[in-house]
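ARCHIVE CARD
Drawer: 12
Card no.: 0347
Subject: one protein chain, sequence and derived structure
Cross-reference: see card 0346
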Amino acid sequence: MAKKQPKTKKRAPLQRPQLGDDVEILDAGSVIESRITQTLESNYMPYAMSVIVSRALPEIDGFKPAHRKLLYTMYQMGLLKGARTKSANIVGSTMHLNPHGDQAIYDTLVRLSRGNESLLLPYVSSKGNFGKAYSRDMAYAASRYTEAKLEDVCRELFADIDRDTVDFVDNYDATTTEPTLLPVTFPTILANNTLGIAVGMASNICSFNLAELCETTISLLRDEKHNLLSTLKAPDFVGGGLILYDEEELRRIYETGRGSVRVRARYEYDRENNMIEITQIPPTTTVEAIMDKIAELVKAGKLREISEMRDETDLGGLKLTLDLKRGQDPDKLMGRLFRMTPLEDSFSCNFNVLIAGQPRVMGVREILTEWAAFRADCVRRRTYFDLQGKEKRLHLLEGLEVILLDIDKAIRIVRETEEDAEVVPNLMIGFGIDRVQGEYVAEIKLRHLNREYILKRTEEIAGLKEEIAALRDVLEHPSKIKKIIIGELGEVSKKYAQPRRSEILYDIPQAEQEETEPEMPDYPVTVFYTEEGYFKKITPASLRMSSEQRLKDGDSVRYEFETKNNAWLLFFTNKAQVYKCRVGDFADTKASAMGEYLPAKLGMEEGETPIFVTVTEDYHGHMLFVFQNGKAAKIPLSSYETKQNRRKLVGAYSDKAELAAIRELPQEAELAIQTSGGRMLLVHSTQIPEKTTRNSIGVSVITLKKNARITSVKMADDLELANPHRYRVRTLPAAGALLRTEDVAEQISL
């Protein structure tokens, strides 16, 4: 009898909540607390490390993963020999290793090509329009129109890659393998410039001439204390240009991996047509950026010597032509252009390289040492690979030698063996050889059982033993590995070295070192600066027409100077900085205008405001900074006259103590210093020693009681004191004297 099944309750169909229904959601409205450091570590750090280790920074072989994948794909495609193939074909094949999209791969191919002129030592031989690194607007053609293959120098990148010189790993879908590094035979890491921006760090490596680089590496392998500057003169850039030699800065780059190299454009003057032809520019800029800056200066009236500018770049290379007005000095004009435009620029070095998966900023010496260690490991692995192959071959031939000494016995054993599977074991028993040797002997053809074959194999055994001994000797003596590396470097230099492209300028004319400002019209003006930070410049004629100044509600004039249009303005700010500019940098205006807002005009930082303004034509006199702690610093005004005419100087005065007052001293004068304790001290500025360092903390001038401070500093000539000698002293610091009643009244009336 069938068992009665229990009745199951029929489940109602699910209904979607309607608008207005009360729906209960599990844990709705609850707040789950989590430490921000934990969130960053779990969510952001994996991405950051991936960018650092697997994308942006180069490794000791000189390549980022994208470069290595592309070049290895081209090597596997056989593009080291034969004709070029379409770039689209290369891009498609590379996606087996690099699945980041065809455009990213093609961008990499373009930069590695000879046609783009990005690299001093290009790795890709190109045909077609690959754009130009020195042009911002010259776009490269699509991958279906261009062709490429590997340059001959790539033989040095893949030499012995099939002899276990480097490790291989699976690609992203484990369908093939790719090398973790390339066994480069010369320091490619310094042979080409590399720029990489990771997360929280970056890398910017300049290129060096291959001949100088190989010579330096060889010298360093022979003597670890070798003077790098004696062989590695300076960086060498693909675009050429002139390198302004600075031995101290280069030494710092070579030892620390950080610093900057000044590079200026190369030009020629065509006297017949009165024009300047610029043919080489710094690697940090483009011809369009230079033209934009020159056009901006011409429009602003700061360059009046140029009548026309043309970009005449063609298949022959870069050429920027400047037509000059009659009577202009081309060298003086170029001197100004070097200072005012990117025609002279700095290449900032940051030699950040991945070593064993860890980013390290290293100098040239340390990089070459690391590369030598990497290359020594490649040579060692190659030698061991060859040794294993030859030992295996020797083992087989030794078994063959034993059998060939009594070939008739071997034939008899084979003939008398009934089963095929017993041939090898019987040979092993009959001659005392192992299975590997037996398998090799059993496969010998009958036609090889002749005297000539036997003699050749016997001679090969002797040669193999010599080669094996030599290989073992290499493995046992690191000095021999070093000798092999030196020989390879010499061959690379002999085959692929090219003359320097960037000329080194050792002696810079003094006239070029001293920066001069362009001539500015010289006429009298009156300048006004208000409490709210507005500045205006008015000519005497305009001021006579209307002297009533228009100001914002509640604003008032703080400083008023009669000066000249070509004078210098120095604005000292509350952040211990000074901003410099010419009076002529401001447009002439009228009293009815409100003026320009100074912090915005000078690009001041947020919260930064001028607290003192002075005008000078020759930087004569001193600046006096008096601090609330009783100290004062007298700084020559000439300390703010820089050769580079920088617009902003940090450390304009010391920020170690609160500032009590700033005074300009065109000539030495007597000062009245008053404290919160009701004391006054008359100090002559000659009693305060001069300090040449702008941010000097100064010297003590007044001895303060506990919790007392300096409250004001005035010119003594402006005060009418009943007995000024009461407040004077011979030596500093001094406590000063208490203010008398009549002198206090004088202070209040003032």
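Annotation on reverse: Residues 64 and 289 are 28 Å apart (CA to CA). DSSP finds 20 helices and 34 strands in the chain.
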